[in-house]
Amino acid sequence: MPNESIQWFNGKEFLFIQGRKTNFLNESFYGTMTLRLFLVCFFLWGSVISLFSQEEIQIAWDFDNGSLGGWSINADREIVLTHAPGAGGLWYYFRIDGAAGKSLTFVFENARKDFFGGDSLPAVSYDQKSWDWIKRRYIEPHPSDLNLVQYSFTHTFAADRAWLAFSPIYDNQQLDGLIEEIESHPHVMIQTLCSTPLENLPIPIITITDPEMPNNEKRCVFVLAREEALESASSWFCEGLIRFLLSEDPVAAALRRRCMFLFVPVFDRDGVALGTAVHPLDREGRTVYWTEAWPETSYSFYEQRQLKRFLQTWKDGGKNIDYSLRIHSSAWNQDSLRREHCAESRLADQEAFFGEILAQKYMPWYKNQERVLQDTRFSKFAADLFPGAITGLCLSEFCFKKAFSLDYPLYKTVDDLKTEGQLFVYALAEILGVPASDPPPFLHAAEMYENIGAANQEFHVRCVYRDLLNRPPEYVRVFVDDQAFDLKPVMDPAGELDYQNGVLYIGYVSSKATVGSHSFVASNGSRTFTLPQNGRRIGPLLLAPTSIR
């Protein structure tokens, strides 16, 4: 590993490597011709781009959650993409074949500025399981419409087949796989709310509780995720909740004894299947419906009516809902928590849970918004049916903003969202009187910044180490194949390390394998934390210089 030292200039982090200054900030920027020319030259490292034809590559989206309006190749040899009807001008997910070794640029010429004009990055996967962010993306003003931008991104492909998407995918197959994995657990019961009217897909309600404890003494927590199909982050967050509650952690075991949890990880299964942004009312996705109007006085679609009936039957059976949480996502806004409908007698408990425990201790990068009472949302329906319920919303995004005392964003992986689900459970345990006495450390924004490169190249890796009890790490490491690489902390100008808030660790790794794998591990001396918690991530992926074209 080369000699390195970390210094600060004008409040920003730079890493000096053998005399070269490199800024590893991934800030939003508008592409310029100078930047484009520099990046093309850098990533081709002396090879010649070969022109390709529409016959050489194939693009398809005829699969679960897939969506694209069409594609063509323009005079600049860029692949011009359009959105499909029902995609809301934002959702896309497609597969490309014939891409190995090619450096391809994709363009949305009429992209919505509210979704594509900020920190958004495209997601890429080679196996539909491990997703990475494409960092070479450009945002340019639209020539005639202030509400639109021209959005383009360039990627050098390490394999013949890859998938590209608006955000890391949580499709119906992911949900089915989760159900199959957990349904035999003794503390799990799976019910079917209904089958969807378009694709005949069952909507599962997952109940988690310890059956040996009497149910009439338990608190009940209801979690509704993915009301709109585009909100893939909400399903990842919900899966994190579920997986941690079924773990052997003593806090999870204590909550299973004290509580009954009901989860709907994907409410809009038809929308996910058909690749629409919001709920579709026809298979072509030309008529869609935002799933916001829940009171009986306005229109509600089939799945909404079935959930209302389920909860009414739940109440008629003498059961209650004590906490109701909606998990939403727009992908690229500020993470936030919002207190919603609640009886006056429980307002103090609501503020303590959302404002103090969650937003200050467990997930401080989430903004605690002002309490909002909207009569058209699910929370109003839940509070009317269960007057003692504390209701709220969690807006979970793919970007850490204003987090860890950093003045630039860090990008989340699906592991981050699952970790946030775990943190939410810890917060709930604390408000219910079973706080964790020895929590593990946590790793956030753990990534290999660019995981495709040449043989003998070193790859920049980084993560944020965080410990709820402010304990320093015994180590923070990255394992690439079977080799361990220790990471070093980035010191702030004051020279202080606040582990409870989070400290950035960085380093470099290398691999001899053409297709490598890696994972992050940290220890606080008492417990360890590994990302991903199951399996390994793909990368580095090594390309010979002559293979790029």
Structure characterization notes:
The protein is of the alpha+beta class and about 550 residues long. An 8-stranded mixed sheet has the order 14-15-17-16-20-23-21-22. The longest helix is centred in the last third of the chain and has 18 residues. The protein has 10 helices and 35 strands. The chain is globular, with a radius of gyration of 24 Å.
According to DSSP, the number of beta strands is 35
Q: What general form does the structure show?
A: globular
Estimate the strand proportion. 25-35%
Give the class from helix and strand content and strand pairing. Answer: alpha+beta
What is the straight-line distance between the termini? 29 Å
Main sheet, how many strands, which sense, barrel?
8 strands, mixed
Discrete helix count:
10
The amount of helix comes to: 10-25%
* Spatial order of strands in the largest sheet: 14-15-17-16-20-23-21-22
Q: Average pLDDT value? A: 87
What low-confidence regions span 5 or more consecutive residues with pLDDT below 50?
Answer: 1-51
Query: What Rg is obtained from the alpha carbons, in whole angstroms?
Result: 24 Å
Summarize this structure briefly.
The chain has about 550 residues and is α+β, with helices and mostly antiparallel strands. About 20% of the residues lie in helices and about 35% in strands. It is globular and about 65 Å long.
How is this fold's topology laid out?
Blueprint: E1 4-9, E2 12-17, E3 20-23, H1 33-44, E4 58-60, E5 70-73, E6 79-82, E7 93-97, E8 103-112, H2 113-116, E9 123-125, E10 131-133, E11 137-141, E12 148-156, E13 161-165, H3 172-182, E14 188-195, E15 202-208, E16 219-225, H4 232-245, H5 250-258, E17 259-264, H6 269-274, E18 279-280, E19 288-289, H7 302-316, E20 323-328, E21 336-342, H8 347-362, E22 367-369, H9 378-385, E23 390-395, E24 399-400, E25 410-411, H10 414-431, E26 442-448, E27 452-454, E28 459-466, E29 475-480, E30 483-486, E31 488-489, E32 503-509, E33 515-523, E34 528-531, E35 537-543
Parallel strand pairs: 6-8, 16-17, 16-20, 20-23, 21-22, 27-35
Antiparallel strand pairs: 1-2, 2-3, 4-7, 5-6, 7-13, 8-12, 9-10, 9-13, 11-12, 14-15, 15-17, 18-19, 21-23, 24-25, 26-28, 28-32, 29-30, 29-33, 31-32, 33-34, 33-35
